[in-house]
Every structure is written in structure tokens, then in C-alpha cells.
Amino acid sequence: MSEFSIEVIRPWKPEDFAIRFCLFDFDGTVSLIRQGWQDIMIPYFCEELRKTGCTESDENIYGLVREFVTDLTGKQTIFQCIALAEEVRRRGSTPKDPGEYKAEYLNRLERRIRDRKEGLAAGRYQPEEWMVRGTRDFLEGLRGRGVRCCLASGTDEESVREEAKLLRVDDLFDGGIWGARDELFRGRRKEEIRDIKAEVIRGMLSEERIDPSQLAGFGDGFMEIELVSGAGGLAIGAATDERRRSGIDRWKRERLIRAGARAIIPDFSDPEALLNLTGLRPAGSK
User: Which of 102, 215, 240, 264 could bridge 233 with an S-S bond, Cβ 3.0-4.6 Å?
Assistant: First the structure.
């Protein structure tokens, strides 16, 4: 029995949106290759804070790290590493460069996901085994209705492109694929670093000359939902339970609602229902 359902949080009328562009997050929204990344990042960051000699309990440190890691999910990984450096400094220690924290985190993550990527490349795994359910059919449904899809991720752009290709969805994002690039933050202060998703949305609204009502966004991170909602687009929270690969992750759901999601979905396993019930359609259709 399917667990698919659309939970409408902030109702809208069909005429409120005439979607031409859809922005998708990657990890946890399309791809499950990096499922469990929080289980790598959060303990590692806790290790670094414990090295400061602070007297806080393990529970308090874990809660603190989980909070800022979750709040920054959707932004480039470097922002979470900058937050770690700030917490280390706040405890009277000298932090490493955020780029060093990022490199170590990615090394640990790569050891976890190497088999997944190698298995996909060799054909031992099928793409659907490492994607959120229904993703391909939904993307194809959008394109069939004349909607352009683009992908924007806080993961490094080279990795996003590689993993989208392994999942055989790279050609479905005719609006472009973007990710984090080190040259955009190296040597810059935090407030000078451009958020990749904000840049993509800004570009779509200005360069493509679309109205915010023509933009939809799907994501499981606070940032992309907040950005799309704040811009006036249709923000749909994908609260996928990545471990079970079915149903709703209650923690994600709460965060996505706070971020401004108009509706919450568990996945894309009923693409026609999602297309119809959310009113997604090409501009000009009745």
C-alpha cells in the first residue's frame, strides 16, 4: 500500500500559479546516494568541539550541532563548516580553516558512499535503488507539460553532476545543474559568500524574465524552501524518510513547514496526483 499523500499546509488556488520552471534540491530530494550524511557530519563536528576541552555534556553538544547542521541544510557545505569554526572559537580555541573541516568531512563521507557510486557505475545497483521514489516519472511528467527543471545543490557541483549522471537523470534537468564551487568562497568572509540556490533563483526570475508565480521548488532542506517561498513561488517540502525510503520524516516535516512550505509530500511515487493536485501546469493552460 502506497504511503503517498499530499499534506496541504498553506492552501492555494489553481490560478495562483502557472508553473514554467521547477527548482529541485538534489540530496534527499532526488538522490539517496548520500543518505546518512548527517551521521557522518554531526559526530565529526561533535569530535571537533569536544577537542576544545569544553565541559558541556555530550547531549548538549550533539543538540547544538544537529541544530545548526539542520538549519543550514540546503546551503553549501562550507556554511556548516564555518558554523563549526565559530563554535570552536566561541569555546576559546583556535579553529581550523573551514575548508579543512569540509575536506575531512568529505573524506569520511566518501568512504561511506563509495560502494553506492561504484555499484551504480558497474550496474550492480539500478538508479531507482538510490533515488527518491517516483522521481524520474515526475520529472518526465513536468517536462511533458512544458515545465523546465533545474537542479541546485549545496554539494560540490562536480559531485552533483557525477551523481546525477550515475542516476541517469542529468538529461532531465534542461534548466541547468548547479552546485557549490570552492572558488566562490575561498578567501571570502562568510557574508561575502553567495548562496548558490539564491543565485539560481535570482537568475531565473531576472534572466529568464519569469514571474515568481511561475516558479515551483521541491526540496528537503530549510534553505531552498525558504528561498522559493520568500520569492513568491510554490514551495513543496519533500519530507522523505531516507532510511525507510517510504513515508514522512517528522523532523524534516516540522522544519519544512517552518521554512514556508505550502505542502508536504513523502516522495514522488504518484506523479500524476502530484501534478494535478498541486496545479502544476504550463503557463497559459486552463
Answer: 215
Q: What is the DSSP string of 185-230?
A: TTT--GGGSPPHHHHHHHHHHHTS---GGGEEEEESSHHHHHHHHH
Three cell numbers, residue 246: 517510504
Q: Quick check: 248 pLDDT over 80?
A: yes
| Domain at 7-32+127-277: CATH architecture | 3-Layer(aba) Sandwich (3.40)
Q: Please report, for the chain, the start and end positions of each structural domain, with discontinuous segments joined by +.
A: 7-32+127-277, 38-122
Interior angle at CA 277, CA 272 and CA 278, nearest 5: 105
Q: What is the pLDDT of residues 159-190, one digit of tens each?
A: 999 999 999 999 999 989 999 887 555 555 55
Asked if residue 149 lies in contact with residue 22, where contact means CB atoms within 8 angstroms, the answer is yes
CA angle 77, 101, 256 (to 5 degrees): 30
- The whole-angstrom separation of Cα 119 and Cα 121 is 5
**What are 114-154's pLDDT values in tens digits?**
999 999 999 999 999 999 999 999 999 999 888 999 999 98
